[in-house]
Design brief:
With 361 residues, this protein is an alpha/beta fold. It has helices at 67-79, 87-97, 103-117, 128-131, 147-159, 174-187, 208-215, 232-241, 258-268, 277-280, 282-295, 309-320, and strands spanning 4-5, 8-24, 27-40, 49-53, 83-84, 136-137, 140-142, 164-168, 194-198, 222-224, 246-248, 272-275, 299-302, 344-347, 350-353. The strands form four sheets. The protein has a seven-stranded parallel sheet. It has a three-stranded antiparallel sheet with strand order 2-3-4. Strand 3 and strand 4 form a beta hairpin.
Length: 361
């Protein structure tokens, strides 16, 4: 076994095309630009590691015009480094080497290097998802659109066997969104179908609490980010008064270090937090958030952020190490016409790794 190794990395852009107009409170998504990070090493001849850096437009701190240039600057620095053949030490070295302003690159390099040292087989480290084909429970995602489109998605997810769905809200007329929720509850009790909603910060500060009370009539499991990030005092008040558990999502973006993260959770005291490795800075930083949450009895789950199957596979393996009982937000692999073919497979609300299916790359 090689004690240390150096790498060569390159960045490969890819435009992912949505199968439909994906509506969010921030607008309609038709395509998604992502970047595959490919790493090789003379210490591991014939092996190739892949990771994915996929900043989200208007949301990620590394959504910037000079993204490619910044990636190449980091790669130049990393090409001069020697890495130990040890998972935790690799994660720590990358944590020190990649600026916090490039969270999606941090995640991509972490997973690419771990893939490389484990044989270039899209396996990051020992985990039940890849090694034992253990399925992970996931929620079905309902995108914004007109009422008929949303109801069609709901019926499809129900027919596909999902028992937990997440509905994007905040862009349509609120009464229409409530009518979709009413339709679901008229057919399924909360014991048969779990409903999560995601407002992506769309509620106004003055109306948020009253809307939460209206939504509570539909036995909602949780609501993600009801108001825009940065309104800590108001979010704190909402979490104290809410009839529906609140999950912080965008609120965590750009918060770095133990002290800042601890202070945020201690101030707001949310019921849940959402972990998106692409937006938070990868595996090591997401793990730190989970530790802080569990110390405070705050619930959590892990969510993909519109990655291709390259990134989704890595996030699923990360989630698998925690043996999650709650449904995770890992159902985005079916969104694109031109996704990478992969062994990832969704069956009745569970994400599985099917070794009989091959990777495209």
């Amino acid at each position: 076994m090689n004690e240390t190794f150096s790498i060569k990395g390159e960045i490969i852009p890819r435009i992912l095309q949505f199968k439909f107009d994906a509506g969010t409170s921030r607008g309609i998504l038709k395509k998604k630009k992502t970047f595959i990070i490919k790493v090789t090493s003379s210490a591991f001849p014939g092996w190739v590691g892949y990771g994915e850096a996929g900043p989200l437009v208007g949301l990620s701190v590394d959504d910037r015009e000079d993204f490619n240039e910044q990636v190449n600057l980091v790669l130049e620095r990393i090409h001069k480094m020697e890495f130990p053949n040890h998972t935790e030490k690799i994660l720590q070295l990358l944590n020190d080497a990649v600026p916090s302003s490039m969270p999606s690159l941090q995640f991509a390099l972490e997973t690419a290097l771990l893939d490389l040292i484990n044989g270039g087989k899209r396996r990051m480290y020992p985990n039940g998802f890849y090694d034992n084909h253990q399925a992970i429970p996931i929620n079905g995602l309902i995108w914004m659109g007109n009422k008929d489109f949303m109801l069609h998605q709901v019926r499809t997810k129900i027919d596909e066997g999902y028992t937990c769905i997440k509905i994007k809200i905040g862009a349509l007329d609120f009464e229409q969104e409530c009518s979709v929720l009413k339709f679901i509850r008229n057919q399924f009790s909360d014991s048969d179908m779990t409903i999560r909603v995601d407002a992506n910060g769309a509620f106004g500060l003055k109306e948020a609490l009253s809307k939460l009370f209206v939504l509570s009539k539909f036995q909602i499991h949780s609501i993600e980010q009801p108001i825009p990030k940065g309104n800590v005092e108001m979010m704190t008040e909402l979490c104290r008064k809410t009839p529906i558990p609140i999950a912080l999502d965008e609120e965590l973006i750009g918060i770095n270090g133990h002290e800042m993260s601890s202070r945020l959770l201690d101030d707001i005291q949310p019921q849940y937090i959402i972990l998106k490795p692409t937006l938070l800075g990868g595996i090591k930083k997401s793990s730190a958030w989970i530790k802080l949450a569990e110390e405070r009895n705050i619930g959590w789950w892990i969510t993909s952020a519109l990655e291709s199957n390259i990134g989704l596979n890595a996030i699923a393996q990360f989630a698998s190490t925690y043996m999650p009982k709650l449904p995770q937000g890992l159902g985005t692999g079916q969104l694109y016409h031109n996704n990478f073919r992969s062994p990832l497979k969704i069956e009745k609300g569970w994400l599985r790794y099917d070794p009989d299916l091959a990777w495209e790359i």
